[in-house]
Amino acid sequence: xxxxxxxxxxxxxxxxxxxxxxxxxxxxxxxxxxxxxxxxxxxxxxxxxxxxxxxxxxxxxxxxxxxxxxxxxxxxxxxxxxxxxxxxxxxxxxxxxxxxxxxxxxxxxxxxxxxxxxxxxxxxxxxxxxxxxxxxxxxxxxxxxxxxxxxxxxxxxxxxxxxxxxxxxxxxxxxxxxxxxxxxxxxxxxxxxxxxxxxxxxxxxxxxxxxxxxxxxxxxxxxxxxxxxxxxxxxxxxxxxxxxxxxxxxxxxxxxxxxxxxxxxxxxxxxxxxxxxxxxxxxxxxxxxxxxxxxxxxxxxxxxxxxxxxxxxxxxxxxxxxxxxxxxx
Length: 329
Hints:
Blueprint: H1 4-7, H2 11-22, H3 24-31, H4 36-48, H5 53-67, H6 74-85, H7 87-93, H8 100-106, H9 109-116, H10 121-129, H11 133-141, H12 145-157, H13 163-178, H14 192-199, H15 204-217, H16 219-228, H17 240-248, H18 252-259, H19 264-272, H20 276-288, H21 294-313
Helix pairs in contact: 2-3, 2-4, 2-5, 6-7, 10-12, 11-14, 12-14, 12-15, 14-16, 15-16, 18-21
């Protein structure tokens, strides 16, 4: 069986084989980035290329691995850095003190916001995906709306990151923020769960704005993100016993503020799970409550959501997943 190695194919020949496998539309996107000389060389190869199915598969596999090499585990990173700077320097770089994920979470949010303001959406998506949800939501809230949607889209589609992207981001961070320190490892990042977790922590108005923008360009993705989110209106799906437990852990002032803009379904759920006396008291307080700031209402709702999540993590109540009917026994 012939192989690419046996035939000693050169880089341009492998590129020509790979482009032929992409189809006209996608190949055209790649060719747009090439110089006229490179296009001419590739064109010549593509016109005369005739290869066996085995070589075709082998070349495709090789190029795809190089384009998007998964970064999982310390050994790969250790070997790459050792080859670049030497074994001794690599051991220093890979020490706990220079851990990339730890360091970006220790950076002052204002510094990070200022730094990311000038970066492209891919870089922002990668960094935000590695932040803790609280910090990520703060950063996201300070990104311009047009860029914000693009960042969310890229985060939702992030899985593994190519070596070149990580190297370039690491270099910029080292130069701009870490100075002489470098990161040690990266991990699988992003995805729908990460996006949903971050959006759950931003203000409702920001949340809605982002989802509406995503819906315009990718309604299916917006729908998938919503399915993984837990918002205030979802409290209506908690079974009654769980709701009663939740209400015991909520301050009355937070409950009143949260109900200011709540749907009738949520209000009915609350009234159903408190005594008649408390129900009447809440209704009266809501009637006489004057205008309040929307951000205070959203903050109260967020407090209740986080309390519900905490109680779920402690096994005290169940938050049903959207689209799934929970069975209690």
